[in-house]
Prior knowledge:
Layout: E1 2-6, H1 17-25, E2 29-32, H2 52-65, E3 71-76, H3 79-90, E4 96-100, H4 111-114, H5 117-126, E5 133-134, E6 147-148, H6 149-153, E7 167-172, H7 182-189, E8 194-198, H8 205-208, H9 210-225
Parallel strand pairs: 1-2, 1-3, 3-4, 4-7, 7-8
Antiparallel strand pairs: 5-6
Amino acid sequence: xxxxxxxxxxxxxxxxxxxxxxxxxxxxxxxxxxxxxxxxxxxxxxxxxxxxxxxxxxxxxxxxxxxxxxxxxxxxxxxxxxxxxxxxxxxxxxxxxxxxxxxxxxxxxxxxxxxxxxxxxxxxxxxxxxxxxxxxxxxxxxxxxxxxxxxxxxxxxxxxxxxxxxxxxxxxxxxxxxxxxxxxxxxxxxxxxxxxxxxxxxxxxxxxxxxxxxxxxxxxxxxxxxx
Length: 227
């Protein structure tokens, strides 16, 4: 199976390096993306930050340019907003849609509307300098870069007409301070259209327990292939 992986806020495709290496070792293809404006060299135009639509377009282009091999689209945290938008356009191209402690929006939602008060305060304080870019929170990897505020506040447009939904899985990082995902995971556990898995190590699962995350993704791919 091919995995296309979308990171969360402030991070790049590098966050999945260990996960990707293990998946490749198990015979999968992996493309871990860095979203527009978040490359280690910084944005091309500081004055024109990308928004959620920009990121959806970017990932959709990758999906459309790919072959016909079975495809799993994964998103962490803010990346859930992006993969939901891509799946709404190209759901018939996807076999798996995997939210890794990530936002799962309905039409008209935004990262801002779905997140916790703690994160909203962080977005406001972090963008105080210019109103466009949210500064990197303390404690993140040195490769992290300021995140475009526009992508956090823009609402997603989901038409719901891309055909049958792919298999959907939510991988929970468990209850961590300020998590906006605990009630979401509990709700999805009771939804027959979802699988919910637990890797209770906190929000940044790819960094905290990449081996277990890679194993869970491999198992999902194997289960799908064996149906």
